[in-house]
Every structure is written in C-alpha cells, then in structure tokens.
Amino acid sequence: MSEFFSGEGFHPNLRRRARFVPRQAVSEATLPIVRRLHALSGWRRPSGVEVVSISREVRVRVHRPARSTGPVPGLLWIHGGGFVIGRAQQDDALCSRFANKLGILVAAVDYRLAPEHPFPEPLEDCYSALNWLAGHHEIDPTRLAIGGASAGGGLAAALALLVRDRGPITPALQLLLYPMLDDRTVARAEVADRYRLWNARSNRWGWASYLGDADPALAVPARNDDLTGVAPAWIGVGTYDLFHDEVLTYAQRLRAAGVECDVEVVAGAFHAFDLIAPSAPISRSFFARQCESLLTAFDAGRGPAE
Length: 306
Fold this sequence. Notes:
Blueprint: H1 15-20, H2 31-40, E1 49-53, E2 59-63, E3 72-78, H3 92-102, E4 105-110, H4 121-134, E5 139-149, H5 151-166, E6 173-177, H6 200-211, H7 216-219, E7 233-240, H8 244-256, E8 261-270, H9 273-276, H10 281-300
Parallel strand pairs: 3-4, 3-5, 5-6, 6-7, 7-8
Antiparallel strand pairs: 1-2, 2-4
Helix pairs in contact: 4-5
C-alpha cells in the first residue's frame, strides 16, 4: 500500500484496516498457495460444532444455539471465496453468533470448489445441504432461510431461484451479503482504487472458473429473466464494493418482480468489511440488521397455533 494512503472516503471504523487489506486476495497464480494456507489454518474445531457428511461430496458444519426447546428455525450458510477458495470453517464465529443470538440452528455447507468443480456442482451441493437441513429433526421447515457472503451470497441467490423452480422447500428469506451476482460486472473507475480483496480482475477469473462451459443464462442469477416467486431478500453491500452496482440493480429487479427486498448500503465500506473487522461498530450494526431481518422472516413463518 502506498505510503501516501490517506483513507479518504473509507468509513472511520475501517480506515486503518483498509491500509493493510489487499486489493486482490487470490489470483490464478496464487491459488495453490492460498488453498494450502486455508487448509493449514483453523484446524481445531470449536466446541459445540458438529461436522456431518451428508454425501460423499458434501459436508456441513452444524452450529446449535446454547439453549433451545422444540423445533427451531434454520439457516443454511454458504461461505465466500470467489467460487475458488474458502471453507465452511472460516465462518465458524459468524455462524455461532447467528445460532446463539437468534436461537436457531445454522448449517454451513462445504461445497466443491471451481475450477475443478464448475457449475452446477457447487450449486447442487448447496441444494443437497438445504434438503438435508429441511429434513433435520431439530428444524422447523416452515422457518428456514438461506444466506451467504460474496460468492456464497451469489450461490444463495442462485439457490433461491433453484428451489423456486424445483422445490420442495420455500425459504423464508435469502440473506445476501455483498453477493456475487453478475459475471458482466466491471469496475467503477472512480472508486476502483478503494476495492479490497476482490477487484475486476479477480471477478473475471472467478466467474470463468465457476462457469466453465456452462450457459451464463442458466448459471448467473443476474442473467435470469424471471425473478418472480423467489424468497424475500435482505441484501447488504458497501459503497466501495465491486458488487455495489450489481446488488442495487438486482434489488430493483426483485422489487419489480413483486419480491420483498430490503437493501442495506454501508457508506465507506469495502468488500467483506464485517469479516475483516467484526468488532467494529459498523460491522456490529450490519450484523444486527441481518438478525432483525431473519427474526422478522421467521416470525412470519410461524403457524397461527404457535
């Protein structure tokens, strides 16, 4: 980072972090090294986390609330990483916060990664995990949400479309944190120097890895011509996120299709700011908004006798 970095424009809570966060976290050349580092980090399983293999290809990490009685709401969580890196384990802290704050069961899915496993394999892994979660004896299937961050948010949006078309689950909410929705996105020149972790070059490579030979019209949520009938959405994004514009466009299209959609735009925030600085006031506020949205969706799914 330049010694003349001033932090101008970044939210005050994020200025110091922005100095040290790279503009591109992984590239095609560094992919093997980054994956190796991911595999070596965080090898210990936090207490209370159960790892379940639901098929030969798919595992989930199950986070239960400290106290619960009877069937509880559930959240399928999908990690980020541009489709090419990442593990469910990286979001253990976040998933445990959701579970204990809301009294819900959270299942974080380890889906197969591109480019070795392009579309539709990662999406099908998420679909399998959602069906497993919906049938779990601890879950109230009428109060089930799907969510994810970055590429995980894009997969969550794609999963919402898939279950609309295929069933049998009707999610109460799709919780999309700075989701990766559109392979056509290009950098906004006026703020491109403030992107962190994921820039336009990363985006082109990540999408190319995920799509392989697939038809983008089938694989990319933003290219879907019909958004009617999908689950209500909560979408959050920062103003210095590469995905800012595509998120707002997708939200407008959801609303035009009659889908309830709340959008939280965080001024001066870069990509994955809340995971980089989880204790910052701006990140705690961002998390609180997500919890409010989930609680509202779960309350709407309660039966009249509950």
